Automatic annotation (TrEMBL), chains A, B:
The keyword DNA repair applies. One of its GO terms (biological process) is DNA repair. SUPFAM superfamilies: Recombination protein RecR. May play a role in DNA repair. It seems to be involved in an RecBC-independent recombinational process of DNA repair. It may act with RecF and RecO. It comes from the Bacteria. The gene is recR. A zinc finger (C4-type) spans 58-73. It comes from Flavobacterium terrae. The lineage of its organism: Bacteria, Pseudomonadati, Bacteroidota, Flavobacteriia, Flavobacteriales. Keywords: DNA damage, DNA recombination, DNA repair, Metal-binding, Zinc, Zinc-finger. Belongs to the RecR family. This is Recombination protein RecR.
């Protein structure tokens, strides 16, 4: 693209560094900002910079938090002996929205992915293993997405804690509630048969 | 969405003010910035703010420009008697890319759109009419998109300059080169028949 302004070109180039934002979309967004009052751009730029500079992570579960220990980790009404292992804050938000989990979380910050250059040392794995070895944990629930990277990460952690007394579990994979069987992929359908549950349990959850 | 951090929530809220960016996408983009080195966010924020603060518009054609009079308007090799009227910089870039136009532009900055509260006074129409009345213009080419707003804007300008000696033209509407007739919409196909051109001209352009 041949811009008539370096300022515009810079803004578009920086914007198009974001994932899923191409040059055309970036130009559309930047031109939108130009049509808005100056304050809009200022608020956006400040919010991003302040977030990036001052963001903190909970010292216990590593979730994003404005305080040292997050709301969930300080809540005495939650079961601190059950830890749900997730990839990032989006998973915490999704599980919290269900209202079905009263334990606490451990946020890994990613999955082991050699292709992307992410090894175990870049994730919050050591602190999880330490928590388990301290003896205060009853159950670890693996709730990573079931991709190759997710499975690898689960297994890497599992190997380090399997000799402790902790119970390990994985969230159930199966047909989504309301989905038609015929459209489900084979692997999911296959797993949902192997991992079938007592009928009484399936009624209980409704 | 229930965020565990006000800083994160602010950043997501500001990001989701951009057109076509919902809360989920905004969260994904912001989390991406969190995983990148701090400089990335700084560069983005600075580029946006600097652009919004310092951007200038060409005093002649109103296109975005870092100098008082833009490159196109100062170029002596361009025909300053033919003015192509467009909505914004994206149209200038698109037409420049074709390499088919050697005149100059006049950027309106939008289209008349009562629904969006945009009247003629918010667009760069007066300066265009003045240019025409100064007598230095031979031809005005209307190149706004052919929507109701585009047609209204064209007609509004046309009424003010129709008593001068200027030639007014509109870019050709028709079937895209390479498109199948059967998939063309009726209005476009109809216009392409009414506004047919001598066969020799159609060969010349290939």
């Amino acid at each position: 693209m041949d811009f008539s302004s370096k300022l515009l070109e810079n803004a578009v180039n920086e914007m198009s560094q974001l994932p899923g934002i191409g040059k055309r979309t970036a130009l559309r967004l930047v031109l939108h900002l130009l049509k808005q009052p100056k304050e809009h751009t200022e608020f956006l730029a400040n919010a991003l910079q302040k977030m990036r500079e001052d963001i903190k992570f909970c010292k216990s579960c590593h979730n994003i938090s404005d305080v040292d220990i997050c709301e969930i980790c300080v809540n005495p009404n939650r079961n601190h002996h059950i830890i749900c292992v997730v990839e990032d804050i989006r998973d915490v938000m999704a599980i919290e929205n269900t209202g079905q989990f009263r334990g606490i979380y451990h946020v890994l910050g990613g999955k082991i992915s050699p292709i992307d250059g992410i090894g175990p040392s870049q994730l919050n794995i050591t602190s999880l293993v330490e928590k388990v070895k301290s003896g205060n944990v009853q159950e670890i629930i693996f709730a990573l997405s079931s991709t190759m990277e997710g499975d690898t990460t689960n297994f890497y952690i599992y190997k380090q804690i399997k000799d402790t007394n902790v119970i390990t579990s994985s969230i159930a994979r199966g047909i989504s509630v309301g989905d038609e069987l015929e459209y489900a992929d084979e692997v999911t359908l296959g797993r949902s048969i192997i991992n079938r549950i007592p009928f009484e349990n399936s009624i209980k959850n409704n």
